[in-house]
Amino acid sequence: HTTLGPSITRHVVTGYLAAQHPPDPEDLSRIQELTDREQEVLKLIATGASNSEIAATLHLSEHTVKTHVSHILTKTGCADRTQAAVLAHRITRGP
User: Fold this and answer.
1) Would you place residue 14 in the very low, low, confident or very high pLDDT band (cuts 50, 70, 90)?
2) Residue 69 and residue 51: Cα distance in Å, rounded?
3) Which of 41, 46, 52, 53 could pair with 88 as two cysteines, CB 3.0-4.6 Å apart?
């Protein structure tokens, strides 16, 4: 028997679940047009970070973050940041 640390166990379980439930191609296509920076912002939205927290993390102004969020919502067809967060979770974890 081998014991794994919590972070390794989480990584293994996440990988296993992703293999069992790959992301929906339609969801993937919805984020395909996002820039690298918009994808970073989307990942932080998915963690529940506020605009000010995202701005501090990425060293941006809040106005710039709001612009990125607006572009994310437009490009993905999401009505609000909650839908964007759900989309991000589906992409990373599968259905």
Assistant:
1) low
2) 9
3) 46
